[in-house]
Design goal:
The protein is α/β, with parallel strands linked by helices. The protein folds into two domains: 228 residues, Spore Coat Polysaccharide Biosynthesis Protein SpsA, Chain A; 78 residues, no CATH class. The strands form three sheets. Strands 1, 2, 3, 4, 5, 6, 7, 10, 11 and 12 form a ten-stranded mixed β-sheet that branches. Helix 7 runs parallel beside helix 9 and helix 8 runs antiparallel to helix 9.
Length: 324
């Protein structure tokens, strides 16, 4: 996928500070036209009790005042590229940090606000559990608008218990899970070396899920550290049961639904057994598309748009879509 990258500053990597065990942790932030949120995120990264050894900002072609502000910052590594979506931004973030010698990459979007001790709790957990280089750990992502609400449901592995409130897990130091979001996730270089970078072709939606699936296949466990908190808006969820099938999805606009259906169809086809995909996952995708178009959008046109998304996922037609 072609894009242009501009590295605004060059650094002598030998000058970066290191922590115990000589770990270099690079924080990465992907941003697009959300300068106020970016400034809040950067301020929280600068104020961490365990400071990142470098902060890398991936500017996804912002057209507001983001680039002008970034040029004024002397402590940031800035990469500017055309808008490749969050997936393309996370790809560049992981690639840049890995190639610059990071031992860990702490990945997030600009609307992720980590509490000031978030990184310290992550590294402390790695120290105590002796999982350095062997596991992925992440922040507990909590709503920045509602008290005692997780921004995204958290399902424990292997029990399959799903949690919706931080209070439900306050007695646990960490929750093992199979999935994560790119909102305060700390990935070791060993994992990146073995499985590569996030798939930039997804543009938006499901790039984090697909990356987590690859981690599981290579036996990298994922832990959410419950006292390492990041704040993020909580999406609006729609939960229903249709023809005996449980469906949970975010109530987004049609473009985001298109990318979600396309990319989830692609990753399910790629990573599940053909019999399970045809017999279980594909029918569920079609049910979801039908319900969203008919019951929520009340639009036959939407149904054909969502059906097209599923076809694109089946035929590996990925990348940014120009909607008419």
């Amino acid at each position: 996928m072609p894009y242009t990258v501009y590295l605004l500053k060059r650094y002598n990597l030998d000058t970066f500070a290191t922590t115990q065990k000589n770990m270099k942790i690079f924080a990465t932030v992907v941003t697009y036209n959300r300068l106020t949120l970016l400034q809040q995120c950067i301020e929280h990264l600068r104020s961490q009790t365990r400071k990142p050894d470098a902060i890398i900002v991936i500017n996804n072609g912002s057209t507001d005042n983001t680039l002008a502000w970034l040029r004024e910052q002397t402590d940031l590594i800035v990469v500017t590229q055309e808008n490749t979506g969050s997936a393309g931004g996370e790809y560049t973030a992981a690639k840049t940090a890995y190639e610059m010698g990071a031992d860990y990459v702490w990945m997030m979007d600009d609307d992720c606000i980590p509490e000031l001790d978030a990184l310290e709790y992550l590294t402390n957990f790695l120290d105590r559990s002796e999982l350095h280089g062997k596991a992925v750990v992440g922040c507990l992502v909590c709503s920045n608008q509602e008290e005692n609400k997780l921004s995204f449901p958290l399902t424990e592995y292997p029990s399959s218990i799903t949690y919706f409130k931080p209070s439900e897990i306050k007695e646990k130091e960490a929750i093992r899970t199979l999935f994560f979001t790119f909102l305060g996730i700390l990935i070791p270089k060993e994992a990146i070396r073995k499985i590569g970078y996030p798939d930039p072709r997804y543009f938006i939606r499901c790039d984090d899920i697909e990356y987590a699936v690859r981690l599981k296949k290579l036996n990298f466990p994922i832990y959410i550290v419950t006292r390492s908190i990041a704040r993020h808006p909580r999406p609006q969820y729609v939960h229903l049961k249709m023809l005996g099938v449980e469906l949970l999805f975010t109530n987004d606009d049609s473009k985001k639904i298109f990318y979600g259906l396309r990319n989830s169809t692609h990753l399910l086809k790629k990573h599940t057994h053909p019999i399970a995909f045809i017999g279980k996952h594909l029918p569920k995708q079609l049910l979801l598309a039908t319900y969203k178009a008919i019951a929520i959008d009340k639009s036959l046109k939407s149904f054909f748009i969502y059906l097209k998304a599923i076809v694109h996922g089946l035929t590996n037609r990925l990348g940014k879509v120009e909607f008419k």
